[in-house]
Amino acid sequence: MIRLESYLQGQWTSGEGDGSTLVDPASEQGVATASTKGLDFDGALRFGREKGGPALRAMSYAERGALLMAMSKALHAEREQLIDDSILNAGTTRTDSKFDIDGATGTLAYYAGLAKTLGSERTLGGLGTVEGEGEQLTRSKRFWGTHIRTPVRGVAVHVNAFNFPAWGFAEKAAVALLAGVPVVTKPATATALPTWRCIKILVDAKILPEGALQLVCGSPGEMLTHLRTGDVLAFTGSGTTGAHLRRLEAVTERSVRINVEADSLNATVLGPDVEVGSETWFAFVRDAVREVTQKTGQKCTATRRIFVPKQHMDAVLETLAEEMGRVPFGHPAAEGVRVGPLASAQQHKDVREGLDALVDAGAKIAWQGSGAFEGATEGKGYFVHPTLLRADSPRDVGLVHEREVFGPASTVMPYDTPEEAAELVALGEGGLVAAIYGNDKDALRTLVEGIAPWSGRVLIGSKKVADQAISPGLVLPSCVHGGPGRAGGGEELGGRRGLDLYTQRTAVQGDRALLDKLFE
Ligand code: NAP
Q1: Whose CA is closest to 347, among 190, 166, 187?
Q2: Residues of the chain where predicted confidence (pLDDT) is lower than 70
Q3: Whose CA is closest to atom 46 on ligand 1?
Q4: pLDDT tens-digit profile of 105-119?
């Protein structure tokens, strides 16, 4: 078994004892161990602040962008190794592994490209972007106010979820590093192998200045008690852990910035005008099937609730069942398999309990895959069959809007009017993404207006874009990712917008000519 060491203060180091065992979710065999017991977290965070921060701030955007591009290329060069690690430890099929890894390299490359548009000059001892045109503050045209943004003087601690071990690390790191802020990244222990490999590749390639990127493999221990004013905590994971982190003393007493990406009951609405068999209908079906099955439903943006006009309930369920029935599931390395196992024993338990809870609450199983799992050893592995539920009275089955079953399952529900569909989506109390399929402008306007306040992103699948392969679960670095309420209230990515979390906005007031010279 591989021992996954942490990379702290410029060296690979391992905690005491056996620590946690990471397993192959298809066979339940151990593949690696990791321990953080006794590691010097305080020293690591200080090392980031004192070594990594100044080194990054001494560079221009263009220079930091070049680092990101080098990171992207180095990881891409080891793509096959990363795919193998992902299949082995995350249980993802080859296609799903690529989705994670190419997402990582693509996001790094995107931010490398964005760096070129941010100017190559180093100002204000680091970043110093100027926002907007500035404001005249008194009658005199001389007295002027302008807003600048400078990188925070702390370290960014990134605590990630198990489902995207490569992309989760890279999408957060790309933004922080470009902003000039050093990173300590902590993957979820259960699937830390691909993240460990990413960091190993980057350390071996000697791309980043020392202290710019550190890795914690294993339990976070007391690491977060060492956060100080000026640090940033960015978290992706369950709402329960997110709520716990918000109550950390560092957050409540020392104003450490926190960004939370948590649970989400993402919705898809089939518009009232969509005819069965139309282009828009097929786009809806294609995306819904992908969003329920891709990564075995373990995507924060996966579709959990499907709202359809009442008269289409049976046709939708029949078509989705037929299409999902064609998706081969089984061992992630087996030829042709598109749905692998869940990532861990805990997920396996949670998904099965979640499905039972939805049924107890009044939802009915409308369809469930069956049969043997291709290439898997019988009785081994965290496999589940894809499931479609139906809830014909959506308001009477409250749990369907509350409990995120983090697996290949979704509930189909009827609505009467676009207004009602928007209200039903809102019952999820905040989500990452909602998709709407239709072409009727009035209905679309009603749906977007009703859904947008509850959602970080809305995708409209209409006739003219029906052939586009961008389905709602795909997070693109140029658009924001995050959502209100249950989704954590956070926001990441979104191109330049993502840098805000890692920079301090300051209003600077004074002689306009002087300010122009300072910030030219
Ligand atoms: P989790 O149990 O909350 O764990 C997430 C991360 O938090 C892991 O790295 C975990 O470390 C760490 N952690 C757990 N307890 C902690 C504590 N007390 N202090 C500090 N860190 C702690 O969530 P998960 O099971 O990995 O992920 C599943 C959930 O994440 C789903 O509900 C899903 O909706 C959500 N998710 C959201 C997004 C999004 O972008 N909004 C994306 C992906 C997943 P250990 O692994 O070492 O325990």
Answers
A1: 190
A2: 119-128, 469, 520
A3: 188
A4: 999 999 999 998 886
